Amino acid sequence: MELNDLPYLLLGALASVRDDSIKSVDDMIVKGKDLAEGGKAKAKASAQDKKIEATIQELVKKGKKESEELVDAISKVIKDTLDQLGIVTKSDIKAVEDRLGALEKKLGGGKPAKKAARKKAGRKPAKKKKAAKKPAKKKAAKKA
User: How far apart are CA 93 and CA 13, in angstroms?
Assistant: First the structure.
Protein backbone atom coordinates (compact mmCIF):
# COMPACT_ATOMS: atom_id res chain seq x y z
CA MET A 1 0.00 0.00 0.00
CA GLU A 2 1.29 3.36 -0.88
CA LEU A 3 0.70 6.72 0.73
CA ASN A 4 -1.13 7.88 -2.33
CA ASP A 5 -3.74 5.14 -1.73
CA LEU A 6 -4.50 6.27 1.85
CA PRO A 7 -7.23 8.76 0.90
CA TYR A 8 -8.91 6.09 -1.19
CA LEU A 9 -8.68 3.66 1.70
CA LEU A 10 -10.36 6.14 4.02
CA LEU A 11 -13.01 6.94 1.44
CA GLY A 12 -13.69 3.20 0.93
CA ALA A 13 -13.88 2.67 4.70
CA LEU A 14 -16.38 5.51 5.09
CA ALA A 15 -18.51 4.13 2.24
CA SER A 16 -18.42 0.68 3.81
CA VAL A 17 -19.37 2.04 7.26
CA ARG A 18 -22.12 4.11 5.69
CA ASP A 19 -23.56 1.05 3.88
CA ASP A 20 -23.34 -1.05 7.05
CA SER A 21 -24.94 1.75 9.06
CA ILE A 22 -27.79 2.11 6.58
CA LYS A 23 -28.31 -1.65 6.64
CA SER A 24 -28.24 -1.64 10.45
CA VAL A 25 -30.69 1.24 10.60
CA ASP A 26 -33.01 -0.53 8.17
CA ASP A 27 -32.79 -3.69 10.29
CA MET A 28 -33.59 -1.68 13.43
CA ILE A 29 -36.62 -0.10 11.75
CA VAL A 30 -37.93 -3.54 10.75
CA LYS A 31 -37.42 -4.86 14.30
CA GLY A 32 -39.16 -1.80 15.75
CA LYS A 33 -42.16 -2.29 13.46
CA ASP A 34 -42.33 -5.96 14.44
CA LEU A 35 -42.29 -5.05 18.13
CA ALA A 36 -44.95 -2.40 17.62
CA GLU A 37 -47.21 -4.88 15.82
CA GLY A 38 -46.61 -7.43 18.59
CA GLY A 39 -47.57 -4.82 21.19
CA LYS A 40 -50.79 -4.06 19.33
CA ALA A 41 -51.54 -7.77 19.10
CA LYS A 42 -50.91 -8.14 22.83
CA ALA A 43 -53.16 -5.18 23.57
CA LYS A 44 -55.90 -6.72 21.40
CA ALA A 45 -55.45 -10.08 23.13
CA SER A 46 -55.64 -8.39 26.54
CA ALA A 47 -58.86 -6.60 25.57
CA GLN A 48 -60.32 -9.87 24.29
CA ASP A 49 -59.30 -11.63 27.52
CA LYS A 50 -61.12 -8.96 29.54
CA LYS A 51 -64.24 -9.36 27.39
CA ILE A 52 -64.12 -13.12 27.79
CA GLU A 53 -63.68 -12.82 31.56
CA ALA A 54 -66.64 -10.41 31.80
CA THR A 55 -68.76 -12.78 29.72
CA ILE A 56 -67.81 -15.72 31.93
CA GLN A 57 -68.71 -13.79 35.10
CA GLU A 58 -72.04 -12.80 33.58
CA LEU A 59 -72.78 -16.41 32.63
CA VAL A 60 -71.88 -17.61 36.13
CA LYS A 61 -74.26 -15.07 37.71
CA LYS A 62 -77.01 -16.04 35.29
CA GLY A 63 -76.40 -19.73 35.99
CA LYS A 64 -76.62 -19.21 39.77
CA LYS A 65 -79.87 -17.27 39.42
CA GLU A 66 -81.41 -19.93 37.17
CA SER A 67 -80.19 -22.68 39.50
CA GLU A 68 -81.90 -20.99 42.47
CA GLU A 69 -85.10 -20.60 40.45
CA LEU A 70 -84.97 -24.29 39.50
CA VAL A 71 -84.48 -25.36 43.13
CA ASP A 72 -87.41 -23.14 44.19
CA ALA A 73 -89.63 -24.61 41.48
CA ILE A 74 -88.71 -28.19 42.43
CA SER A 75 -89.32 -27.44 46.12
CA LYS A 76 -92.74 -26.02 45.30
CA VAL A 77 -93.67 -29.10 43.25
CA ILE A 78 -92.53 -31.42 46.05
CA LYS A 79 -94.43 -29.43 48.68
CA ASP A 80 -97.59 -29.42 46.56
CA THR A 81 -97.27 -33.17 45.99
CA LEU A 82 -96.84 -33.85 49.72
CA ASP A 83 -99.88 -31.67 50.46
CA GLN A 84 -101.98 -33.54 47.89
CA LEU A 85 -100.91 -36.91 49.28
CA GLY A 86 -101.56 -35.78 52.85
CA ILE A 87 -98.08 -36.69 54.03
CA VAL A 88 -97.07 -35.01 57.28
CA THR A 89 -93.81 -33.09 57.17
CA LYS A 90 -91.39 -32.12 59.93
CA SER A 91 -92.60 -28.55 59.75
CA ASP A 92 -96.20 -29.74 60.22
CA ILE A 93 -95.21 -31.71 63.32
CA LYS A 94 -93.23 -28.76 64.67
CA ALA A 95 -96.24 -26.47 64.18
CA VAL A 96 -98.51 -28.88 66.07
CA GLU A 97 -95.98 -29.20 68.90
CA ASP A 98 -95.74 -25.41 69.16
CA ARG A 99 -99.53 -25.05 69.29
CA LEU A 100 -99.79 -27.81 71.89
CA GLY A 101 -97.13 -26.15 74.03
CA ALA A 102 -98.96 -22.83 73.83
CA LEU A 103 -102.25 -24.49 74.84
CA GLU A 104 -100.59 -26.24 77.77
CA LYS A 105 -99.18 -22.93 78.97
CA LYS A 106 -102.61 -21.31 78.70
CA LEU A 107 -104.25 -24.10 80.62
CA GLY A 108 -101.46 -24.24 83.17
CA GLY A 109 -101.10 -27.90 82.45
CA GLY A 110 -97.57 -27.99 83.70
CA LYS A 111 -94.91 -29.46 81.57
CA PRO A 112 -94.92 -29.31 77.78
CA ALA A 113 -95.76 -32.48 75.87
CA LYS A 114 -92.16 -33.17 74.83
CA LYS A 115 -90.83 -33.25 78.39
CA ALA A 116 -93.74 -35.32 79.62
CA ALA A 117 -93.31 -37.79 76.77
CA ARG A 118 -89.60 -38.10 77.52
CA LYS A 119 -90.29 -38.67 81.19
CA LYS A 120 -92.85 -41.36 80.46
CA ALA A 121 -90.53 -43.07 78.04
CA GLY A 122 -87.67 -42.90 80.52
CA ARG A 123 -89.60 -44.43 83.46
CA LYS A 124 -89.08 -48.03 84.38
CA PRO A 125 -92.17 -50.10 84.92
CA ALA A 126 -93.18 -50.25 88.58
CA LYS A 127 -92.15 -53.41 90.39
CA LYS A 128 -94.93 -55.55 91.68
CA LYS A 129 -95.08 -55.69 95.41
CA LYS A 130 -95.15 -59.10 96.93
CA ALA A 131 -98.28 -59.77 98.84
CA ALA A 132 -97.77 -59.92 102.55
CA LYS A 133 -97.93 -63.41 103.93
CA LYS A 134 -101.15 -64.14 105.68
CA PRO A 135 -100.71 -65.44 109.14
CA ALA A 136 -101.35 -69.14 109.24
CA LYS A 137 -104.67 -70.11 110.79
CA LYS A 138 -104.36 -71.82 114.06
CA LYS A 139 -105.64 -75.27 113.84
CA ALA A 140 -108.25 -75.97 116.31
CA ALA A 141 -107.09 -78.48 118.82
CA LYS A 142 -108.75 -81.78 118.20
CA LYS A 143 -110.65 -83.10 121.07
CA ALA A 144 -110.29 -86.69 121.32
Answer: 106
